[in-house]
Amino acid sequence: MSILVTGGAGYIGSHMVCSLLEQGRDVVVLDNLVNASYAALERVQALTGRCAIFIKGDVRDRSTLEHIFDSHSVNEVLHFAGLKAVGESIEQPLRYYDNNVGGTLSLCKAMATAGVRRLVFSSSATVYGHVERMPIKETMPTGRPTNPYGRSKLMVEEVLRDLCRTDPRWSVALLRYFNPVGAHESGRIGEDPSGIPNNLVPFISQVAIGKCGALPIFGNDYPTRDGTGVRDYIHVLDLVEGHLAAMETIARRSGVSIWNLGTGQGYSVLEMIRMFEKVAGRPVPYTIQRRRDGDIAECWSDPSLAERELGWKARRGLEEMLVDTWRWQTANPRGYG
Ligand code: NAD
Ligand code: WQD
Questions:
Q1: 35: number of Cβ within 10 Å
Q2: Which CATH architecture does the domain made up of 2-181+233-264+303-314 adopt?
Q3: Is the CB of 198 under 6 A from ligand 2?
Q4: Rounded CA gap, 156 and 246, in Å?
Q5: Is the peptide bond before 135 cis (omega within 30 degrees of 0)?
Q6: Which of 63, 113, 79 is nearest to 3 (CA)?
Q7: Domain spans of the chain?
Q8: Chain-centre distance of CA 115, in angstroms?
Q9: Catalytic residue among 96, 97, 128, 149
């Protein structure tokens, strides 16, 4: 049996595909390469000595999906395909809803037709919106995400809940990622943002290597220990291991299961800079700017439900996350080029 990985050429998807191939699983990747390079999958092949079947196509395209389900014996789907830039989603909301919500609807319809009802969805801590009390547990109500990207994730969660309510043969994991960072320990695959990075760690990394001038710190007047925003950064390889554990668990369950994938530990922007300077052995200049619209002061997970139910726990600490980021950055100054 094969696993279909949508968005499998992307940052998290390529690390997932690498791990699945290492485990001897057969993998079909569907990606339209809107935010990825085929080179990532070539490198995965070089690392694992195995090859995923790659289909360049759009998850919204029913005929492509039907072709995949007709020609490969797929029994589960990992759904990473999506657009993820918060600022862009504010400028292009229809594109985001069409891609992220429309893409999932199209995927679920094709899965239902093919009789495949096991799905792992890449959700996000953004669905919690503004939370007063940390850490965040899965039982806390979902809030009001502050942008169309976040709302598209929440909408998909609701769609998948409705689907499982009406048809108990479905088994769906909603994995709420906190802040994925880091790269494969080989330095061969990693995050390759196009243009100016939106997220903190790729930005710091590009400042350290000299591609960006100075890091803008978005606010130092938050009610946090040093005034800068606090987040729960998780190594992408820990995230991948969380998916493997979730896949095993939903194979034995039906309905919707929700797990936070985080470390349970928050770090501030200044703490991230200090650790990066230590790891890279060079300074990371920064300037203090006004707060970024929609940002929250702090956000970190209670990951204990995943530990209890999945037997999974993030193992890699902040230093390892940033060592691996820096190895990827220095070995690939132009990303996949
Ligand atoms: P990414 O952009 O690197 O990967 C997404 C992949 O999906 C890309 O390869 C892109 O080409 C592909 N894609 C997008 N739309 C598609 C479509 N319509 N059809 C086929 N392929 C399509 O992003 P990532 O960081 O690897 O994120 C993977 C998933 O995890 C996304 O759904 C994202 O929203 C979610 N997520 C990411 C983060 C994060 O900080 N990286 C946090 C929470 C959730
Ligand atoms: C982290 C901290 C910033 C950049 C976003 C999405 C979320 C999820 C993960 C997909 C914050 C500060 C950042 C910079 C800075 N994505 N910062 N200067 O905002 O927690 O989450 O990515 O699902 O949905 O919203 O991550 O890395 O952008 O920011 O000071 O240039 O770094 O203010 O405190 P965020 P981030």
A1: 18
A2: 3-Layer(aba) Sandwich (3.40)
A3: yes
A4: 18
A5: yes
A6: 79
A7: 2-181+233-264+303-314
A8: 26
A9: 149
Q: Which of 12, 89, 204, 218 to mutate to test the pocket of ligand 2 (most atoms within 8 A of CB)?
A: 218
Q: Burial-class residue 140 by CB neighbours within 10 Å (0-12, 13-18, 19+).
A: middle
Q: Six-digit token pair at 68?
A: 């995949």
- Closest ligand to C-alpha of residue 90 is 2
The answer to whether the CB of 224 falls within 8 A of the CB of 230 is yes
The CB density around residue 115, as the number of other CB atoms within 10 Å, is 9
Query: At a CB cut-off of 8 Å and minimum separation 6, what does 22 contact?
Result: 48, 50
State which H helix or E strand residue 29 sits in. Answer: strand 26-31
DSSP label of 128 = G
What is the C-alpha to C-alpha distance for residues 268 and 266, in angstroms, rounded to an integer? 7
Mutational pocket test of ligand 1: of 122, 178, 258, the residue with most ligand atoms within 8 Å of the beta carbon: 122
Q: Tens digit of pLDDT per residue, the chain (337 long)?
A: 999 999 999 999 999 999 999 999 999 999 999 999 999 999 999 999 999 999 999 999 999 999 999 999 999 999 999 999 999 999 999 999 999 999 999 999 999 999 999 999 999 999 999 998 999 999 999 988 989 999 999 999 999 999 999 999 999 999 999 999 999 999 999 999 999 999 999 999 999 999 999 999 999 999 999 999 999 999 999 999 999 999 999 999 999 999 999 999 999 999 999 999 999 999 999 999 999 999 999 999 999 999 999 999 999 999 999 999 999 999 999 999 8
- For residue 218 and ligand 2, the question of a CB distance below 6 A is answered with yes
* Residue 181, φ and ψ in degrees, nearest 5: -145, 180
Contact (CB, 8 A) for 162 and 172: no
Q: How is residue 305 written in tokens? A: 């439900």
Report DSSP state, residue 127: G
Residue 109 Cα to ligand 2 midpoint, Å, equals 33
